[in-house]
Amino acid sequence: MTTSYSSLALAEPLKRAVADMGYENMTPIQAQAIPVVLTGKDVMGAAQTGTGKTAAFSLPLLQRLLQHENASASPARHPVRALVLLPTRELADQVAQQIKLYAKYTNLRSAVVFGGMDMKPQTLELKRGVEVLVATPGRLLDHIEAKNAVLNQVEYVVLDEADRMLDIGFLPDLQRILSYLPKQRTTLLFSATFSPEIKRLASSYLQDPVTIEVARANATASTVEQHFYSVSDDDKRRALCQIVRQREITQAFVFVNSKLGCARLARSLERDGLKTAALHGDKSQDERLKALDAFKKGEVDLLVCTDVAARGLDIKDVPAVFNYDIPFNAEDYVHRIGRTGRAGASGLAVSFVGSGPNDARLASEIEKLIRTKFEIEPIEFENERPRGRFNEGRRLYEDRERAGGRGDRGERDDARESRRPAPRGRAPQDPFFDQPYQASTDAATPAWDAMSSRTATPRAGMSANIKPRRKVAALFKPAALPATTEH
Questions:
Q1: Strand partners, 110
Q2: How far apart are CA 130 and CA 103, in angstroms?
Q3: Residues 386, 272: contact at Cβ < 8 Å?
Q4: Which of 122, 288, 451, 484 is the most core-located residue (most Cβ within 10 A)?
Q5: Range(s) for CATH 3.40.50.300 in the chain?
């Protein structure tokens, strides 16, 4: 049974914004979460990725904040009343854009702050006053310490991708942020995956929460076709290009586990003739946003990325996702393949299982998490190499050579061959150099020994035991000594 947005008790400005975005019927998570959030209760919501969790918390929050709406220009009349925390910069930017669209017919202000960008524009926006602040934890702490953000009037806190926010890497920053907030507040947690440990940790931040699960925990979308292929590490790129070509895939995410591997794979695929962009943590934020924007516009075929792009990014009609590397955490697999098959559309998820035992273990952990048994299939390669721009040209050249290379080029080729010098081989052999060495029978004294053997005639009165000075050739005749004059 579907529920339309017209049946919700939303204010007219919000209904107009929803209509402008083309929303008519609510998804299951929206239908169950929005009425509960409107009552002001804490919520722990679990739903498959791509089912509209952003609208599930944004619309009821804006509805409750309308009581504070005002057109005053004073920053004091626009304190932060709702805080939305997210793990990645790209996701924070996306959620902030959606909230702006929902609130465009109201006087509620919103802003986003995340790292990798200059703090000055963010500071100016915060100083003007905002009711809804979207942020990543690290940059928010920077603004708190600089006294740019005051959170003592926050009424609502949202942890999107809550399992990642409560991970050990984010937990210290999150605890510091929560210490600046009032104790009386409404807390909302939304994610596609919740482990038992995360649920126990989350319960310490919530007060009598309402748990909403619209699908089995850690489930993947039924519209996504999933395949696991056994491929050696050296053949993964070849397998990727072959599947892209065979299935005529126009766009796809390609996930790897390391930043260095991401950059190298992107360069290799670019050489294969595929329009490729890389997205990983070592790139500047401006480069990351440009790569993501180019992918959204269809200017890029493959977006090679690490898990910074695995969560929450909403890009419509992406037909496929490739796990070039099996993720280290099984939960990340659910988020990765959630980039395709969104909002009920069909999608393809391909994972390459390497020959080592580590990949087989990671694949079995994924099976346990999503409670689905997969058959690891072998892949048969075609004889030809992947056809990129370079390989396609080479293939056409080889086809012409196999066909004889005649036609219009025949006479020119023959003339070129006639002008070409003969191939360089071994020099002709001289029999003289093959004979063994024989000593010369000529008894004559060699010329170079003749001079050394000649000795000067001994002068009269010189002992026979004293060897006379040998005559040597001189380049210059010595000058005569000047005569001495006796005084």
A1: 132
A2: 12
A3: yes
A4: 288
A5: 3-213, 224-390
For residues 354 and 360, what is the distance between their CA atoms, to the nearest angstrom?
8
| Residues 69/146, Cβ–Cβ less than 8 Å | no
Q: Which helix (H) or strand (E) holds 179?
A: helix 171-179
The per-residue pLDDT string of the chain (487 residues; one tens digit each, 9 = 90 and over) reads 567 888 888 899 999 999 998 888 888 889 999 999 999 999 988 877 777 888 999 999 999 999 999 999 999 999 999 999 998 888 899 899 999 999 999 999 999 999 988 999 999 999 999 999 999 999 999 999 999 999 999 999 999 888 778 876 788 899 999 999 999 999 999 887 777 777 887 878 888 889 888 766 667 778 899 999 999 999 999 999 999 999 999 999 999 999 999 999 999 999 998 999 999 988 888 888 899 899 989 999 999 999 888 776 778 789 999 999 999 988 889 888 988 887 678 899 999 999 878 999 999 999 998 888 889 999 888 865 544 443 444 454 455 445 554 444 444 444 444 444 554 555 556 666 666 766 665 555 555 555 555 555 555 666 666 666 666 666 665 665 555 555 5
Token pair 């099984």 in the structure block, residue: 330
Interatomic CA distance for residues 185 and 258, integer angstroms:
39
Whether residue 320 contacts residue 341, with contact meaning beta carbons closer than 8 Å, is answered with no
Residue 20 token pair: 């402008």
pTM: predicted TM-score of the whole model, two decimal places: 0.67
Q: Which fold has domain 224-390?
A: Rossmann fold (3.40.50)
- In CATH terms, the fold of domain 3-213 is Rossmann fold (3.40.50)
Amino acid (one-letter) located at 308: V
Q: Would you tell me the crossing angle of helices 259-271 and 236-246 to the nearest 10 degrees?
A: 50
